[in-house]
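Hi team, as promised in this morning's meeting, here are the two structures we talked about. I've kept the exact order from the run log so nobody has to guess. The first one is mostly here for context; it's the second one we should focus on when we meet again. Sequence first, then the predicted structure tokens.
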Amino acid sequence: MATLVVDENVIKVLPSVKEIVSVSKSGESAWARASRIDVLHEDNSKESYFMKVSRGHHGLEALKGEYESTSEIYAITPDFCPKPIAYGTFETDKDSHFYICKFYEFTDGLPNPKMFCANLAKLHSSHTSPTGKFGFHVVTYNGDLPQDNTWETRAGPSAELDELLQPFYDNVIPRLLRPLETSGNTIQPSLVHGDLWCGNAAITDEDTEEGIVFDPSSFWGHNEYELGNWRPERNKFTRKYFNAYHSHIPKSAPEDDYDDRNALYAMRFNLNAATLFPTQKVYLDMVIDEMRRLIQKFPDGYTGHSPRADILAHQRANAMAVSQNAKVQQYAGDVDGTSALPSRQGQPISAEINL
């Protein structure tokens, strides 16, 4: 195992180091250099740490964002992420920066859905934003892209995308997000991991399949945003994970919009992938296809959404059912079990994925 020199500022943030036993490469990252540091402490105990190194202003900003994100997650669910140690700048190279956390040995596969989603639900529900608002106190990064918790600028021109942006912003987004906090509905800011795809989760105990999450780009937002990253086919968090998660936290009201909200949130991650990997046209194609579907479904935007009308229609349907049942009982003596609700024959069949 190759031994490397460890910068003095790194040694300073590690607790009571007696000896650096070894340093080795650990994992792959397109945006940073990752290492494992094995140390002997003053009490002769041994410990391993994970160190990520990046350069420049954006490198420091990204590592600070990861440290702050992991610290927030660790404060709520300490068994669900690596213990963060510190971030800082090398003594010997002021343009090189580091982030350090506890090192974990990973095994292949994905964590057990029930335990994993129980921890995720605890993260989303056991804390509130310190300001009561949506956002985060530092910049965080998805890959090497800064995240300011608003819609990201797309990379590269697309006439087709330009054509769709205005009706999408004006109609689809308000139609799907405003009902979350109108008509008596409300949501509270939850701490989200922010980039929770299958590559940022791992099993730490092969027997129990217990897992942890890492590489966060956190902020305080709608908890369902987290699940948008599970929708794309490239992800391995299947419907079992959706079901396990919602056994702890129910779908936000209105539930009828759930699948389309999930599609909206998934587009955020596909746009990010399209920007990170501009030569892979499939990501942008997925975004455009989904935008077209939602624009066609909600041509009138939020102004065409009438919760009051929905309630009245539901009440009329119930009244009709009661009336029809009464007639059946009057003339036939009993209800034969056939539904008295109005038939759905002739209505369009939904092609949505109801998660």
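And here is the second protein, the one for discussion:
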Amino acid sequence: MKHTRMRNCTNEKCLQVENTLARVAPECEWGAFRAWALKVMACWSTSEKTAFDIDAHPNATRGKISPHIAAARIPMSLPVGSARMSFRGTTQRLAPPPNMAIYFCTKLLGSLELMDWNYEVGFHTEDDFFGVVELLIWMSNATDFVPNPRIMRNYVGVADDLELPLHMRRLNRAIFDVSNLQSNFCRRRLWNLVLACRSGIASIPSIMSILNTMPATDTRVHAQCTPETCQFDEENSTTVRQLHQCGLSESDHRIKCDPSKLNHSTLPHNAWTMKRELTGGKFMAISHIWLDGTGSSINTEAGTVNECLFDFFTSVAQREGCEGIWWDAICMPSDRKKWAEEISRMHQNYSNAEFTLVHDLQLANFEWMDDGSPCLALALSAWFTRGWTALELRASKKVKVLFKAPAQQHGGQTVPEAGFMFQYNGHREYRYVLKDLDDDILASGKSIFTRPAHQEVSLVIQTVRGRAQGDLTKLNQLMFAMKNRHTSWGRDRMIITSLMADPRGLESGLTAPEITKKLLVDSGPWSWCPPVLLDLAEDEEGYDSLLTITPDGELTGTWATKTLTKEELAKLSPVGSHPSTVIRIKRYLTAPKEVLILDKSYEARTGWTVDLYWGG
């Protein structure tokens, strides 16, 4: 600290804030830098915020630093007042030292964005800047400066050709921890989440810092899951026995909501009341996973559910001021044609509901804590990995998630926190809390009091919901939302993707290739496109599309091109493994001079571009 000329702050409020920040700020290999950053941010955050000026260089434009990073009372730094320093023969008035520190770090972060990490840093040093860059990004949350969202991804990108250099110690340790997860956490879900984060694998340390403190509440054992497969992804959920919310697995109390009544209903939505009557009033929609036993089963008659489960859902709805519930297990017509029509507009029930209740046993057993961990638990839950629930999340206006009520200590006894209690016929008592997705679970904007992992994961959920990256009509945003979703039936994934792109509905009976064409354009040759849209390669450059699909099905755009050398030809191999694909590619490569390689990355080096179209 002596080089920063900073004194220890004895202000009690500042010390309390510093302890709080120490729990959320990123770790750093440079301990002294982290300690300095914590003190600066703690004392800044407790100071009165006012605007201040910086006398700029005579040749520069005079401006104001945002009030968001200004402070009038700095209790721990000398000098307390504004400092003056010489700059090219002139005197410049600066902010108090903590403001100078934050402003300097923000400027430094901006400079890092301009660096070519591969050539300026990556191959000329083995210093580990990982924690320093993370801390700088965290400090920038106190300012109006928005760093490049991929700055951490770019820094770790130094390691692309080196397979993560060992000098990135904390990152390597975190990746090792992922491979040794408890069996109640799924490695595939975690890796899918990590790769969806804007920082990519650079987000692993901050995510693991939360995950390592979380209880394992998933009743399914994921010991056999790998980063690429989950043993439960393709499980047929219609064979799962229905859940007994009362806790008595041998109970046989069932009720029936007659599905034939839905065939002739003229109501705008078909919700059932607690008395098993159809209502057109306010209703709650239920988003759940059938693997938990909350869906229909081939072993039970249509519209028949366990009474305790029905009572539980209707009691939640009544508690929240709703008359009825829309639950797919009891709200689908028995007529085949009506059923198909209901499927094509099912998401509209979630749009019209007062709110959507998210029910997942893994989350219902997860004790609520106001520390960002429920957000990570939600992103790693089976509910967030399923296809239909992604559509339901996208369609819902308001979402509430069911968690276990946290316990509190009173008089030496553990007492559940105030929430709501459910008890069926005097049997076992359960206590839950309902938390609003937007208000309680997701991180709300930039804040130094929010863990970086909480912000990263919140952005992933917001993107799937359509509230982070704009509307999900761009092709790669659709792929972001649906690429790693799973359903019991493969065709459902394309139906869901189509409904995300066009909420008005989908005509029944279309095949997967037909749905793909409908998503892109209405007609034309499709040799460039796989039969299933979600099998397209992902664009690592971001969300901006460089290509246009014409009404005739042609792919057009401006690309950088090059011919192949013998050395480059030897390195090429087909991505697909099917013989028909391999044979076709190898046939073209027998005449390499007639083959053009299209790559937008060549443009910066060669400047050789050509307008192309790709048809049938």
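Starting points for discussion:
The radius of gyration is 28 Å.
Confidence is low (pLDDT under 50) at residues 49-97, 115-124, 159-163, 602-616.
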